[in-house]
Amino acid sequence: MNRGVKFLGLAARRIYSERELGPFRAAARLTHESFRVVTARYVAHRSSCGPLKRAPQWASSSMLLQAAVEVTQKGDGDTARALAEAAGKRRNLDLAQFKPAHLETRLVGSDIAGSIGHISMALATRMRLENLGLRAPMPLQLKAARSANDALLSYFVDVVAAPTSDREEARLQSSQGALFERILCVDTNDGPRHIYDALSLANQAWEALENPPLLTLADEHEEQAISFLRSCGFAPDAWFVGLHVREDSSSSLKEGRNASINDYLPMVERITGEGGWVIRIGDRRMPPMPPMPRVIDLTRTAVRPPAVDIFVCAKSRFFVGTSSGPSTVPSCFGVPILWSNATGVAFHGFYLPKCRIVPKLLLRDGASSPITLEEMVHLGIAGMDSSLHSASKGSSLKWVDNSPDLLDAAAAEMLSGSYNAALSRGQISYQDLLAKAGNWYRPVLASSFIDRYPIS
Protein backbone atom coordinates (compact mmCIF):
# COMPACT_ATOMS: atom_id res chain seq x y z
CA MET A 1 0.00 0.00 0.00
CA ASN A 2 1.52 3.37 -1.01
CA ARG A 3 1.90 6.36 1.30
CA GLY A 4 -1.04 8.19 -0.25
CA VAL A 5 -3.40 5.31 0.40
CA LYS A 6 -2.23 5.05 4.02
CA PHE A 7 -2.79 8.78 4.44
CA LEU A 8 -6.25 8.73 2.93
CA GLY A 9 -7.16 5.59 4.85
CA LEU A 10 -6.56 7.48 8.11
CA ALA A 11 -8.12 10.68 6.87
CA ALA A 12 -11.29 8.99 5.63
CA ARG A 13 -12.29 8.30 9.22
CA ARG A 14 -12.51 12.04 9.80
CA ILE A 15 -14.43 12.89 6.65
CA TYR A 16 -18.07 13.76 7.26
CA SER A 17 -19.14 15.49 4.06
CA GLU A 18 -19.02 14.20 0.53
CA ARG A 19 -17.39 17.34 -0.86
CA GLU A 20 -14.23 16.76 1.20
CA LEU A 21 -13.26 13.66 -0.75
CA GLY A 22 -12.23 15.49 -3.93
CA PRO A 23 -9.28 17.40 -2.41
CA PHE A 24 -8.06 14.29 -0.61
CA ARG A 25 -7.98 12.36 -3.84
CA ALA A 26 -6.17 15.12 -5.70
CA ALA A 27 -3.63 15.64 -2.93
CA ALA A 28 -2.78 11.99 -2.63
CA ARG A 29 -2.67 11.44 -6.42
CA LEU A 30 -4.18 8.02 -6.02
CA THR A 31 -5.01 5.58 -8.76
CA HIS A 32 -8.72 4.95 -9.33
CA GLU A 33 -8.39 1.47 -7.79
CA SER A 34 -6.73 2.79 -4.63
CA PHE A 35 -9.31 5.54 -4.28
CA ARG A 36 -12.13 3.03 -4.79
CA VAL A 37 -10.86 0.81 -1.98
CA VAL A 38 -10.36 3.66 0.47
CA THR A 39 -13.68 5.33 -0.27
CA ALA A 40 -15.38 1.98 0.19
CA ARG A 41 -13.89 1.87 3.68
CA TYR A 42 -15.13 5.39 4.28
CA VAL A 43 -18.64 4.42 3.21
CA ALA A 44 -18.52 1.40 5.50
CA HIS A 45 -17.31 3.53 8.41
CA ARG A 46 -19.86 6.29 7.91
CA SER A 47 -22.68 3.80 7.42
CA SER A 48 -21.78 2.07 10.68
CA CYS A 49 -22.18 5.35 12.57
CA GLY A 50 -25.94 5.14 12.15
CA PRO A 51 -28.72 3.94 9.83
CA LEU A 52 -27.92 4.32 6.15
CA LYS A 53 -30.67 6.60 4.90
CA ARG A 54 -29.27 7.05 1.41
CA ALA A 55 -26.15 6.07 -0.50
CA PRO A 56 -23.66 8.89 -1.21
CA GLN A 57 -24.16 10.21 -4.74
CA TRP A 58 -20.45 9.91 -5.55
CA ALA A 59 -20.28 6.24 -4.49
CA SER A 60 -20.25 3.78 -7.35
CA SER A 61 -21.83 0.35 -7.19
CA SER A 62 -18.40 -1.25 -6.69
CA MET A 63 -17.60 1.14 -3.83
CA LEU A 64 -20.88 0.30 -2.12
CA LEU A 65 -20.29 -3.41 -2.59
CA GLN A 66 -16.81 -3.25 -1.08
CA ALA A 67 -18.22 -1.30 1.82
CA ALA A 68 -20.94 -3.93 2.21
CA VAL A 69 -18.25 -6.63 2.36
CA GLU A 70 -16.44 -4.85 5.19
CA VAL A 71 -19.64 -4.29 7.17
CA THR A 72 -20.78 -7.87 6.53
CA GLN A 73 -17.53 -9.17 8.04
CA LYS A 74 -18.21 -7.06 11.14
CA GLY A 75 -21.67 -8.57 11.48
CA ASP A 76 -23.64 -5.32 11.15
CA GLY A 77 -26.58 -6.89 9.32
CA ASP A 78 -28.79 -3.83 8.90
CA THR A 79 -26.02 -1.70 7.40
CA ALA A 80 -24.71 -4.56 5.25
CA ARG A 81 -28.17 -5.11 3.82
CA ALA A 82 -28.64 -1.40 3.16
CA LEU A 83 -25.26 -1.12 1.40
CA ALA A 84 -25.80 -4.25 -0.71
CA GLU A 85 -29.26 -3.10 -1.76
CA ALA A 86 -27.95 0.39 -2.55
CA ALA A 87 -25.18 -1.17 -4.65
CA GLY A 88 -27.72 -3.21 -6.57
CA LYS A 89 -29.89 -0.20 -7.25
CA ARG A 90 -26.87 1.85 -8.37
CA ARG A 91 -25.79 -1.03 -10.63
CA ASN A 92 -29.28 -1.22 -12.16
CA LEU A 93 -29.10 2.49 -12.95
CA ASP A 94 -25.74 1.92 -14.63
CA LEU A 95 -27.34 -0.70 -16.89
CA ALA A 96 -29.21 2.07 -18.70
CA GLN A 97 -26.03 2.85 -20.67
CA PHE A 98 -26.07 -0.55 -22.41
CA LYS A 99 -27.93 -1.45 -25.58
CA PRO A 100 -30.91 -3.80 -25.13
CA ALA A 101 -29.04 -6.68 -26.80
CA HIS A 102 -26.35 -6.54 -24.10
CA LEU A 103 -28.95 -6.77 -21.34
CA GLU A 104 -30.18 -10.22 -22.36
CA THR A 105 -27.39 -11.98 -20.43
CA ARG A 106 -25.38 -11.43 -17.28
CA LEU A 107 -21.70 -12.21 -16.82
CA VAL A 108 -20.04 -14.37 -14.18
CA GLY A 109 -16.52 -13.29 -13.20
CA SER A 110 -13.82 -14.64 -10.95
CA ASP A 111 -15.31 -13.10 -7.80
CA ILE A 112 -17.99 -15.79 -8.07
CA ALA A 113 -16.36 -18.51 -10.17
CA GLY A 114 -13.10 -18.36 -8.19
CA SER A 115 -14.67 -19.63 -4.96
CA ILE A 116 -16.57 -22.90 -4.55
CA GLY A 117 -18.70 -21.30 -1.85
CA HIS A 118 -19.49 -18.29 -4.01
CA ILE A 119 -20.53 -20.57 -6.87
CA SER A 120 -22.97 -22.52 -4.71
CA MET A 121 -24.28 -19.48 -2.84
CA ALA A 122 -24.60 -16.99 -5.67
CA LEU A 123 -25.56 -19.18 -8.61
CA ALA A 124 -27.71 -21.72 -6.78
CA THR A 125 -29.63 -18.89 -5.11
CA ARG A 126 -30.30 -17.27 -8.46
CA MET A 127 -31.41 -20.58 -9.97
CA ARG A 128 -33.77 -21.27 -7.08
CA LEU A 129 -35.28 -17.79 -7.21
CA GLU A 130 -35.86 -18.09 -10.95
CA ASN A 131 -37.49 -21.51 -10.61
CA LEU A 132 -39.71 -20.13 -7.85
CA GLY A 133 -40.75 -17.16 -9.98
CA LEU A 134 -39.11 -14.74 -7.55
CA ARG A 135 -36.57 -13.45 -10.04
CA ALA A 136 -36.69 -12.83 -13.78
CA PRO A 137 -34.83 -15.59 -15.69
CA MET A 138 -31.47 -14.37 -16.89
CA PRO A 139 -28.98 -16.44 -18.94
CA LEU A 140 -25.43 -16.40 -17.58
CA GLN A 141 -22.18 -16.25 -19.53
CA LEU A 142 -18.85 -17.19 -17.96
CA LYS A 143 -16.18 -14.49 -18.26
CA ALA A 144 -13.87 -15.57 -15.45
CA ALA A 145 -10.11 -16.03 -15.58
CA ARG A 146 -10.26 -18.33 -12.53
CA SER A 147 -12.53 -21.18 -11.56
CA ALA A 148 -12.49 -22.93 -8.19
CA ASN A 149 -14.32 -25.99 -9.53
CA ASP A 150 -15.41 -26.43 -13.14
CA ALA A 151 -17.53 -29.46 -12.24
CA LEU A 152 -19.76 -27.43 -9.90
CA LEU A 153 -19.71 -24.40 -12.19
CA SER A 154 -20.98 -26.53 -15.10
CA TYR A 155 -24.38 -26.94 -13.42
CA PHE A 156 -24.99 -23.21 -13.84
CA VAL A 157 -23.00 -21.93 -16.84
CA ASP A 158 -21.28 -23.22 -19.96
CA VAL A 159 -17.69 -23.94 -18.95
CA VAL A 160 -16.67 -25.23 -22.39
CA ALA A 161 -16.56 -21.79 -23.94
CA ALA A 162 -13.23 -20.20 -24.81
CA PRO A 163 -11.29 -19.39 -21.61
CA THR A 164 -11.01 -15.81 -20.44
CA SER A 165 -7.59 -14.36 -19.66
CA ASP A 166 -6.88 -12.16 -16.66
CA ARG A 167 -6.36 -9.24 -18.99
CA GLU A 168 -9.63 -9.83 -20.83
CA GLU A 169 -11.65 -10.17 -17.64
CA ALA A 170 -10.09 -6.98 -16.25
CA ARG A 171 -11.06 -5.17 -19.44
CA LEU A 172 -14.65 -6.44 -19.24
CA GLN A 173 -14.91 -5.64 -15.54
CA SER A 174 -13.82 -2.08 -16.33
CA SER A 175 -16.02 -1.49 -19.39
CA GLN A 176 -19.02 -3.71 -18.61
CA GLY A 177 -18.88 -4.04 -14.84
CA ALA A 178 -22.62 -3.50 -14.41
CA LEU A 179 -23.31 -6.68 -16.41
CA PHE A 180 -21.44 -8.89 -13.93
CA GLU A 181 -23.33 -10.73 -11.23
CA ARG A 182 -21.94 -10.07 -7.75
CA ILE A 183 -21.72 -12.39 -4.77
CA LEU A 184 -23.12 -10.01 -2.16
CA CYS A 185 -26.10 -8.62 -4.07
CA VAL A 186 -28.88 -10.56 -5.83
CA ASP A 187 -31.65 -9.05 -7.95
CA THR A 188 -35.15 -10.28 -7.09
CA ASN A 189 -38.65 -9.26 -8.14
CA ASP A 190 -38.72 -7.09 -5.00
CA GLY A 191 -35.44 -5.38 -5.83
CA PRO A 192 -31.80 -6.09 -4.94
CA ARG A 193 -31.21 -8.14 -1.78
CA HIS A 194 -28.18 -9.05 0.30
CA ILE A 195 -27.04 -12.59 -0.56
CA TYR A 196 -27.91 -13.91 2.92
CA ASP A 197 -31.45 -12.56 2.60
CA ALA A 198 -31.90 -13.89 -0.93
CA LEU A 199 -30.36 -17.29 -0.12
CA SER A 200 -32.47 -17.80 3.00
CA LEU A 201 -35.64 -16.66 1.24
CA ALA A 202 -34.99 -19.03 -1.66
CA ASN A 203 -34.14 -22.00 0.58
CA GLN A 204 -37.15 -21.52 2.84
CA ALA A 205 -39.57 -21.14 -0.08
CA TRP A 206 -38.05 -24.17 -1.82
CA GLU A 207 -38.36 -26.26 1.33
CA ALA A 208 -41.94 -25.13 2.02
CA LEU A 209 -42.99 -26.40 -1.42
CA GLU A 210 -41.26 -29.74 -0.71
CA ASN A 211 -39.37 -29.41 -3.97
CA PRO A 212 -36.74 -32.03 -4.87
CA PRO A 213 -33.05 -31.08 -4.57
CA LEU A 214 -32.04 -28.25 -6.86
CA LEU A 215 -29.26 -30.31 -8.49
CA THR A 216 -28.69 -33.97 -9.31
CA LEU A 217 -25.13 -35.23 -9.60
CA ALA A 218 -24.25 -35.84 -13.26
CA ASP A 219 -23.44 -39.43 -14.19
CA GLU A 220 -20.08 -38.43 -15.61
CA HIS A 221 -19.13 -36.68 -12.38
CA GLU A 222 -20.12 -39.70 -10.31
CA GLU A 223 -18.14 -42.04 -12.55
CA GLN A 224 -15.03 -39.85 -12.42
CA ALA A 225 -15.23 -39.55 -8.64
CA ILE A 226 -15.82 -43.24 -7.94
CA SER A 227 -12.99 -44.20 -10.26
CA PHE A 228 -10.62 -41.91 -8.38
CA LEU A 229 -11.83 -42.87 -4.90
CA ARG A 230 -11.61 -46.57 -5.72
CA SER A 231 -7.88 -46.03 -6.24
CA CYS A 232 -7.80 -44.68 -2.66
CA GLY A 233 -9.38 -47.87 -1.33
CA PHE A 234 -12.99 -46.67 -1.20
CA ALA A 235 -15.77 -49.21 -1.58
CA PRO A 236 -18.29 -47.65 -4.03
CA ASP A 237 -21.33 -49.18 -2.30
CA ALA A 238 -20.35 -47.88 1.17
CA TRP A 239 -22.00 -44.95 2.89
CA PHE A 240 -19.81 -42.04 3.94
CA VAL A 241 -19.70 -38.62 5.53
CA GLY A 242 -17.94 -35.72 3.83
CA LEU A 243 -15.68 -33.52 5.96
CA HIS A 244 -14.13 -30.11 5.42
CA VAL A 245 -12.42 -28.18 8.22
CA ARG A 246 -10.94 -24.83 7.34
CA GLU A 247 -7.50 -24.58 8.91
CA ASP A 248 -5.40 -22.19 6.88
CA SER A 249 -5.77 -18.51 6.21
CA SER A 250 -3.28 -15.70 5.78
CA SER A 251 -5.96 -13.12 6.64
CA SER A 252 -6.71 -12.14 10.22
CA LEU A 253 -10.26 -11.45 9.09
CA LYS A 254 -10.69 -15.18 8.52
CA GLU A 255 -9.01 -16.36 11.72
CA GLY A 256 -12.22 -17.18 13.55
CA ARG A 257 -13.37 -19.44 10.73
CA ASN A 258 -10.44 -21.80 11.26
CA ALA A 259 -10.55 -24.94 13.40
CA SER A 260 -8.34 -27.93 14.17
CA ILE A 261 -8.88 -31.25 12.43
CA ASN A 262 -7.69 -32.99 15.60
CA ASP A 263 -10.85 -31.87 17.39
CA TYR A 264 -12.87 -33.87 14.85
CA LEU A 265 -11.12 -37.21 15.36
CA PRO A 266 -13.59 -38.58 17.98
CA MET A 267 -16.40 -37.73 15.57
CA VAL A 268 -14.57 -39.54 12.77
CA GLU A 269 -14.10 -42.59 14.97
CA ARG A 270 -17.80 -42.61 15.79
CA ILE A 271 -18.74 -42.57 12.10
CA THR A 272 -16.27 -45.26 11.07
CA GLY A 273 -17.22 -47.27 14.16
CA GLU A 274 -20.77 -47.43 12.84
CA GLY A 275 -19.55 -48.76 9.50
CA GLY A 276 -19.28 -45.55 7.52
CA TRP A 277 -16.38 -43.90 5.75
CA VAL A 278 -15.14 -40.36 6.15
CA ILE A 279 -13.84 -38.51 3.10
CA ARG A 280 -12.07 -35.25 3.85
CA ILE A 281 -11.78 -32.56 1.20
CA GLY A 282 -9.46 -29.56 1.23
CA ASP A 283 -5.96 -28.77 0.03
CA ARG A 284 -2.36 -29.57 0.93
CA ARG A 285 -1.98 -26.46 3.10
CA MET A 286 -4.08 -28.22 5.74
CA PRO A 287 -2.44 -30.47 8.37
CA PRO A 288 -2.85 -34.16 7.57
CA MET A 289 -5.09 -36.52 9.50
CA PRO A 290 -3.45 -39.52 11.20
CA PRO A 291 -3.94 -42.84 9.36
CA MET A 292 -7.35 -44.23 10.30
CA PRO A 293 -9.43 -47.10 8.93
CA ARG A 294 -12.11 -46.15 6.38
CA VAL A 295 -10.81 -42.57 6.20
CA ILE A 296 -9.67 -40.93 2.97
CA ASP A 297 -7.81 -37.66 3.44
CA LEU A 298 -7.96 -35.96 0.05
CA THR A 299 -5.86 -33.05 1.31
CA ARG A 300 -2.86 -35.32 0.74
CA THR A 301 -3.60 -35.84 -2.96
CA ALA A 302 -1.64 -33.57 -5.24
CA VAL A 303 -4.20 -33.57 -8.04
CA ARG A 304 -7.74 -34.95 -8.27
CA PRO A 305 -10.64 -34.40 -10.70
CA PRO A 306 -12.89 -31.48 -9.70
CA ALA A 307 -15.82 -33.91 -9.75
CA VAL A 308 -14.46 -35.73 -6.67
CA ASP A 309 -15.19 -32.84 -4.29
CA ILE A 310 -18.67 -32.39 -5.77
CA PHE A 311 -19.36 -36.12 -5.41
CA VAL A 312 -18.36 -35.93 -1.73
CA CYS A 313 -20.72 -33.00 -1.18
CA ALA A 314 -23.56 -34.52 -3.20
CA LYS A 315 -23.54 -38.13 -2.00
CA SER A 316 -22.66 -37.90 1.70
CA ARG A 317 -25.07 -39.27 4.27
CA PHE A 318 -24.49 -35.87 5.81
CA PHE A 319 -21.69 -33.34 5.39
CA VAL A 320 -19.60 -31.83 8.19
CA GLY A 321 -18.25 -28.37 7.46
CA THR A 322 -17.19 -25.10 9.06
CA SER A 323 -17.73 -21.45 8.16
CA SER A 324 -16.22 -21.99 4.74
CA GLY A 325 -17.40 -22.28 1.15
CA PRO A 326 -17.77 -26.08 0.79
CA SER A 327 -20.41 -26.09 3.55
CA THR A 328 -22.91 -24.45 1.20
CA VAL A 329 -22.54 -26.99 -1.62
CA PRO A 330 -24.34 -30.06 -0.12
CA SER A 331 -27.69 -28.27 0.20
CA CYS A 332 -27.76 -27.88 -3.60
CA PHE A 333 -27.99 -31.67 -3.75
CA GLY A 334 -30.33 -32.11 -0.77
CA VAL A 335 -27.63 -33.40 1.61
CA PRO A 336 -27.98 -32.60 5.35
CA ILE A 337 -25.25 -30.42 6.86
CA LEU A 338 -23.58 -30.19 10.26
CA TRP A 339 -22.22 -26.64 10.31
CA SER A 340 -19.61 -26.76 13.07
CA ASN A 341 -17.51 -23.96 14.58
CA ALA A 342 -19.91 -21.48 13.05
CA THR A 343 -19.02 -17.82 13.54
CA GLY A 344 -21.29 -14.78 13.61
CA VAL A 345 -24.56 -16.71 13.60
CA ALA A 346 -26.56 -13.60 14.53
CA PHE A 347 -26.05 -12.46 10.93
CA HIS A 348 -23.95 -15.02 9.06
CA GLY A 349 -26.17 -17.90 10.17
CA PHE A 350 -28.22 -17.98 6.97
CA TYR A 351 -30.78 -20.70 6.39
CA LEU A 352 -29.78 -24.02 4.86
CA PRO A 353 -32.29 -26.91 4.74
CA LYS A 354 -31.59 -29.92 6.98
CA CYS A 355 -28.74 -28.02 8.59
CA ARG A 356 -27.75 -28.06 12.25
CA ILE A 357 -25.38 -25.38 13.53
CA VAL A 358 -22.84 -25.63 16.35
CA PRO A 359 -21.75 -22.02 17.04
CA LYS A 360 -18.28 -21.00 18.08
CA LEU A 361 -18.25 -18.98 21.30
CA LEU A 362 -15.94 -16.31 22.71
CA LEU A 363 -13.80 -16.17 25.83
CA ARG A 364 -12.81 -13.04 27.73
CA ASP A 365 -9.19 -12.73 28.74
CA GLY A 366 -8.74 -14.29 32.16
CA ALA A 367 -12.17 -15.94 32.22
CA SER A 368 -12.59 -19.67 32.78
CA SER A 369 -15.84 -20.15 30.87
CA PRO A 370 -16.91 -18.78 27.49
CA ILE A 371 -19.42 -16.03 26.85
CA THR A 372 -22.71 -17.71 26.05
CA LEU A 373 -24.41 -17.05 22.73
CA GLU A 374 -27.24 -15.43 24.68
CA GLU A 375 -24.80 -12.98 26.26
CA MET A 376 -23.09 -12.40 22.90
CA VAL A 377 -26.46 -11.35 21.47
CA HIS A 378 -27.09 -8.95 24.35
CA LEU A 379 -23.58 -7.49 23.95
CA GLY A 380 -24.11 -6.99 20.22
CA ILE A 381 -21.14 -9.17 19.23
CA ALA A 382 -22.95 -12.33 18.09
CA GLY A 383 -22.73 -11.27 14.45
CA MET A 384 -18.94 -10.98 14.23
CA ASP A 385 -17.89 -13.32 11.46
CA SER A 386 -14.25 -13.73 12.29
CA SER A 387 -12.13 -10.76 13.30
CA LEU A 388 -12.43 -9.58 16.89
CA HIS A 389 -12.64 -5.86 16.25
CA SER A 390 -13.78 -2.88 18.31
CA ALA A 391 -17.18 -4.46 18.93
CA SER A 392 -15.48 -6.42 21.69
CA LYS A 393 -16.06 -3.26 23.77
CA GLY A 394 -12.57 -3.04 25.19
CA SER A 395 -12.32 -6.61 26.40
CA SER A 396 -9.67 -8.95 25.10
CA LEU A 397 -11.54 -11.75 23.38
CA LYS A 398 -10.55 -14.96 21.68
CA TRP A 399 -12.49 -17.62 19.84
CA VAL A 400 -13.37 -20.88 21.57
CA ASP A 401 -13.47 -23.81 19.18
CA ASN A 402 -16.08 -26.53 19.51
CA SER A 403 -14.72 -29.20 21.85
CA PRO A 404 -14.14 -32.76 20.56
CA ASP A 405 -16.91 -34.17 22.75
CA LEU A 406 -19.39 -31.52 21.56
CA LEU A 407 -18.53 -32.30 17.93
CA ASP A 408 -18.89 -36.00 18.64
CA ALA A 409 -22.33 -35.46 20.19
CA ALA A 410 -23.38 -33.37 17.19
CA ALA A 411 -22.30 -36.18 14.86
CA ALA A 412 -24.37 -38.66 16.86
CA GLU A 413 -27.31 -36.30 16.46
CA MET A 414 -26.86 -36.24 12.68
CA LEU A 415 -26.44 -40.02 12.49
CA SER A 416 -29.79 -40.41 14.25
CA GLY A 417 -31.51 -38.38 11.53
CA SER A 418 -32.93 -35.91 14.04
CA TYR A 419 -32.69 -33.11 11.47
CA ASN A 420 -35.98 -34.48 10.12
CA ALA A 421 -37.72 -34.20 13.51
CA ALA A 422 -39.83 -31.31 14.76
CA LEU A 423 -37.84 -28.54 16.39
CA SER A 424 -37.42 -28.62 20.14
CA ARG A 425 -38.44 -25.81 22.46
CA GLY A 426 -34.76 -24.96 22.92
CA GLN A 427 -34.15 -24.72 19.18
CA ILE A 428 -37.14 -22.42 18.75
CA SER A 429 -36.00 -20.30 21.71
CA TYR A 430 -32.60 -19.82 20.08
CA GLN A 431 -34.29 -18.88 16.80
CA ASP A 432 -36.27 -16.24 18.68
CA LEU A 433 -33.10 -15.03 20.40
CA LEU A 434 -31.26 -14.63 17.09
CA ALA A 435 -34.29 -12.88 15.60
CA LYS A 436 -33.90 -10.20 18.28
CA ALA A 437 -30.35 -9.72 16.99
CA GLY A 438 -31.65 -9.20 13.44
CA ASN A 439 -31.36 -12.75 12.09
CA TRP A 440 -34.82 -13.55 10.69
CA TYR A 441 -33.53 -16.58 8.77
CA ARG A 442 -34.55 -19.03 11.54
CA PRO A 443 -31.37 -21.17 11.43
CA VAL A 444 -31.53 -24.32 13.56
CA LEU A 445 -28.92 -24.95 16.23
CA ALA A 446 -27.83 -28.49 17.08
CA SER A 447 -29.55 -30.02 20.10
CA SER A 448 -26.15 -31.05 21.44
CA PHE A 449 -25.16 -27.36 21.64
CA ILE A 450 -28.46 -26.35 23.24
CA ASP A 451 -28.19 -29.09 25.85
CA ARG A 452 -24.80 -27.72 26.85
CA TYR A 453 -25.71 -24.05 26.66
CA PRO A 454 -29.45 -23.72 27.41
CA ILE A 455 -31.02 -20.29 27.34
CA SER A 456 -31.38 -19.00 30.89
Summary, kept brief:
The protein has 456 residues and is α/β, with parallel strands linked by helices.
Please give the number of β-strands.
Answer: 12
Strands side by side in the biggest sheet: 7-6-5-8-9-10
The fraction of residues in strands falls at 5-15%
Would you identify the CATH architecture of the largest domain?
3-Layer(aba) Sandwich
Rounded mean pLDDT is: 87
Q: What's the number of helices?
A: 18
Largest sheet: 6 strands, parallel
Spell out the helices and strands N to C: HHHHHEHHEHHEEHHEHEEHEEHEEHEHHH
CATH topology of the largest domain: Rossmann fold
Poorly predicted sequence stretches spanning 5 or more consecutive residues: 1-33
- The termini sit apart by 48 Å
CATH class of the largest domain: Alpha Beta
Helix content: 40-55%
Alpha carbon gyration radius = 22 Å
Number of domains: 3
Shape descriptor reads: globular
What structural category do the secondary elements indicate? alpha/beta
The fourth-level CATH homologous superfamily of the largest domain is: Glycogen Phosphorylase B
Any overview of this molecule?
This protein has helices spanning 3-11, 21-28, 32-48, 61-74, 77-94, 110-113, 116-131, 150-153, 166-175, 195-208, 219-230, 265-273, 306-315, 345-348, 373-379, 404-415, 425-436, 447-452; strands spanning 106-108, 140-142, 185-188, 191-194, 240-243, 277-280, 295-297, 319-321, 337-342, 355-359, 361-364, 397-400. It is of the alpha/beta class and 456 residues long. It has three domains: 3-91; 98-208, no CATH class; 219-452, Rossmann fold. A hairpin with a 2-residue loop joins strand 3 (185-188) and strand 4.
